[in-house]
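Memo to structure team: turn this sequence into structure tokens by end of day. - J.P.
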Amino acid sequence: MTKFSLLDHESVPKHEIISEGELKSVLSKYLIEKEQLPKIKVQDPVSKEIGAVVGDVVRITRKSQTAGEADYYRLVIE
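Reply from structure team:
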């Protein structure tokens, strides 16, 4: 039996953990603190699949009719 990957499903946008350098850039761009980012739980199936841990920030790249692609950021919480 093969394991199904959530990330391979067409309805699931691309998720990836960002580096500290990219995080600093995002926070300064939006003039916010890390804790002000929207949240995603560490128990979320996609969080588990990408190996996210509490405190990581995940970039979600979604298709957009107006922008082509749009990035969203989520702070991983317990």
